[in-house]
Amino acid sequence: MSVFRATQHPGWPAHLGPVRVAAGQVTLRPIRLRDASAWSRIRTRDREHLEKWEPTGRGSWEARNHAGNWPSLWSSLKAEARRGSMIPMVIEVNGAFSGQITIGNIVRGALRSAWIGYWVSKELTGQGVATAALALGLDHCFGVVGLHRVEATVRPENLASQAVLRNVGFREEGLLRRYLDVDGAWRDHLLVGMTVEEVSGTVVDKLIRSGRAARA
Ligand code: ACO
Known about the structure:
By secondary structure, this protein is α+β, with helices and mostly antiparallel strands. It is 32% helix and 33% strand. A 9-stranded mixed sheet has the order 7-8-6-5-4-3-2-1-9, sandwiched between helices. Helix 6 (129-142) packs across helix 7. The protein is globular and about 45 Å long.
């Protein structure tokens, strides 16, 4: 059974890192059922920081991010992960839940592609956490997971996320008009992409060489 799973979905589950940045040691691990209270507490508190960049949901922000909703969300993400189409990870800083990074729509065959998305707790922003998490996620995609291309979409207004994407080496590919229903309206998004040929060594190595991160 485990052999079948490993073949179907190399790279799940995985523990990645650590990488050291200003905020501390950044690691990635699979989502857990017991993440409910940390997930809910941070997301409820950080509504203003998060809501304007996230897909529109049904019901109030408080209701959607209530700890009681985590078990069903956790279960559906895990089911996708077991099917091989997603890698839903928690970003930890010094061992504490600090955000999420998700590799989604994993397609194999001749495409071998996926998208990547993330958020970080407001109190930890500006200290290299998302950049380190994204670098770890990309190295995983191009390494064990065996992908050829990873893409991301970002609102033109989201300058912090664009900086993160640029700093790990994403290239801009175009503007997707009215692409996604975000914060209550159809929003334009920039499409960025990267293929394995564009990475020399690893993305984490590149961050370390540029002084943005250090080996832990
Ligand atoms: N204008 C321009 N650049 C900015 C701004 C701004 N207003 N604010 C921050 N930055 C830059 C920083 O200077 C830094 O770049 P630098 O290293 O070149 O100086 C970069 O943005 C931030 O880098 P990190 O510290 O690694 O990122 P952080 O841990 O702060 O997380 C993130 C950034 C994920 C965007 C966080 O603010 C967040 O969670 N925002 C809300 C949710 C969100 O936007 N998620 C991303 C959606 S798009 C996607 O998932 C592909």
